[in-house]
Amino acid sequence: MQSKATSDFFDALREWSRWKHEVLRKYLYKFVPILGSRHPTVYFVDGFAGRGMYGDNPPVPGSPLVAAQYAAEIASAGTRPFRLKCVNVEARADYFADLCQAAAEYVPAIALNLRGTFQQRLDDVLQIVGSAPTLFFLDPFGYKGIEWSVMRRLAGRSSTSKTELIINFNANEIDQAAGWLDSHDQPLAPAFIANLDNLMPTSDWRSIVLAGHPKSIREELLTDLYSRQLEQEFGWTVRRYLIQTIDGRGKYFLLHVAQNTRGTREMSEVVNRVHSTYLTAKEQANTTGLKQTSLFDVPADVARSRLIVDLAEDIYAMFHGGFPVSFGTVQNQMALKWFGQAVGKDYREACKRLVKEGRIDRDRPEGITDKTVLVFR
Predict the structure, then answer these.
(1) CB atoms closer than 10 angstroms to residue 227
(2) I need a surface site. Which of 74, 125, 176, 302 has the fewest CB within 10 A?
(3) pLDDT per position as a tens digit, 111-141
(4) Of 249, 243, 246, 267, nearest to 341 (Cα)?
(5) Is the same domain home to 218 and 242?
(6) How confident is the model at residue 147 (pLDDT cuts 50, 70, 90)?
(7) 98 contact partners, CB below 8 Å, separation of at least 6
(8) pLDDT at residue 70 above 90?
(9) What does pTM read for this prediction?
(10) Is the dihedral angle over the CA atoms 333, 337, 342, 348 positive or is it negative?
(11) Are 327 and 375 in contact (CB under 8 A)?
(12) Closest alpha carbon to 50 in 90, 14, 104, 21
């Protein structure tokens, strides 16, 4: 029997899910055109599609419909040299029936719905997408479904085809499951422990749980561990964004697994803009007394002035004494450290500051674009 929490999950859109969907929506609008400029078809795979809609009045699109609606926009415009196709996977029979109904207008030209777990249908998914660039959105209820055997299959695919992942890593659920580690006399304990052994390719999660850290620290460390394992398996960079409630409580991390630094840079801009919108909403809700956790939580003018100064120094420290480098490369490399904190205009302002100070030259008298060559003195 499904728990009430699971059964009611799609009855209404949780306010924190808004930020998750905004990250997905905004990143799709970047990922698809960039890859579509070199490939005729780009795929979006939703591994845990659910019902497709949330039952608000009026209904609110879930992730399968967010992607399908964008795909329809591309098709109806008739001016793009590429198309976006969607593959949705859902295991529950009732959810799948609702998904098929919600996405009916997009089938089969835009969307294909598959019944089963993501792991069960992974062979079919990989056959459908072939070698086309693909963004995998893995958003399970809890943590089952993103076991390491699945990650290893996707890492194998990435060695030959453009692959990116957005993963909902529910550190809170994982930490609760890990609490069974010292429940030796409980009959349910072995199943929970086996689930986490399947999730992580290392037993190091056990030492994190048994070390006696506070819950918030354990969740950070478990997320760090999983992210490092992803980086080792894929050979790529992994960055994360904490999805929060309007009163500042963390719900889960969105992990972005990107094959190159350009992808990280684009997601960094998305996270920056979504977080700014979140902070505005939080301020409008008159939430007070929350701990400041980033540059975003201080007054905007002060934060940006500080950011530009610090960013300029970091840019100079990284590239000083090196070869001439394009402004695009500067942004790509700096996004690894400044993920979610800086956008293109910030990098541009920081470089202009360095030009004014005489610490770098550029290959044109005015303006800075991605192709502008910067020479650091």
Answers:
(1) 19
(2) 302
(3) 999 999 999 999 999 999 999 999 999 999 8
(4) 267
(5) yes
(6) very high
(7) 10, 51, 52, 53
(8) yes
(9) 0.90
(10) negative
(11) no
(12) 90
